[in-house]
Design a protein that fits this description.
alpha/beta; 7-stranded parallel beta sheet; globular
Length: 248
């Protein structure tokens, strides 16, 4: 515990953070975790499966966030081992693209369980650990999507789940401000991932054409905004959903 306390003090002085990132097994979450590690931050990551690619350089927790018992157990272990965290990135999500009339109840429930309820539970537990942080500007970044404003056919349930997270971002910004905790969201356009590779090219092109910056988003486009939202430079920014690409 003495070592954990000393490390918390060092991280606060150096403005490096202990960041919890959900959904780090692959894709954006895996790359975000590696970016944070390469930037000198201490990363705690969680996912249902072991991260792909080169060995994960942070502490990994294998857990299904839709399982509230497993989620609570992970946060108890984090508190026991580390005492606190300084930032949370809610990245874990699931999407099922299909017309509403073809969606099964269990598919819709799964999207809301992971995209909404597990994110809410992570925020609740993270706030408890923020209270023990020495970092002066603890914050939460929720990843969302342009589907919430584009009303895309076949994405009703997925977009509704992410819209709930955006509303939570706005409300929690007010509720958590007295605790000096900021809450923001980053809205992503199509990004080159395994998920978008399964989407027909003409659909991706149609979405990109609606952006002010008409190109597919790369991972390198994400890191600057996320680094900013987590940083001291964004200490007056809360309750915002920042959409990349310039949505029309």
């Amino acid at each position: 515990m003495r070592r954990a306390s000393a490390l918390r003090s060092l991280l606060a002085v150096s403005h490096l953070m202990r960041i919890l990132i959900t959904g780090v097994s692959r894709g954006i979450g895996r790359k975000l975790a590696q970016h944070a590690i390469d930037s000198g931050h201490e990363v705690l990551g969680c996912s249902r499966t072991v991260p792909e690619g080169r060995p994960f350089g942070g502490r990994h927790f294998k857990v299904d966030l839709a399982d509230t018992v497993g989620l609570s157990g992970m946060f108890r272990q984090i508190r026991k081992e580390y005492g606190s965290i300084d930032a949370l990135i809610n990245n874990a999500a699931v999407a099922r693209m299909a017309p509403f009339l073809l969606l099964r109840d269990e598919e819709i429930r799964r999207m809301f369980e992971l995209n909404v309820f597990s994110a809410f539970n992570c925020i609740r537990e993270a706030v408890k650990l923020f209270r023990r942080s020495c970092y002066p500007y603890p914050s939460i970044v929720n990843l969302t999507t342009v589907a919430t404003i584009y009303s895309l056919e076949g994405q009703m349930a997925y977009a509704a789940s992410k819209a709930a997270l955006e509303q939570a971002t706005r409300t929690l910004a007010h509720e958590l401000a007295p605790l000096n905790i900021r809450v923001n969201a980053l809205g992503l356009p199509p990004v080159r991932t395994a998920l978008t590779r399964s989407v027909p090219a003409e659909k991706i092109e149609a979405l990109v054409a609606r952006q002010a910056i008409p190109r597919v988003c790369e991972f390198s486009d994400l890191v600057g905004p996320i680094d900013f939202l987590l940083s001291e430079g964004a200490r007056m920014v809360t309750g915002e959903t920042m959409f990349l690409g310039g949505v029309k």
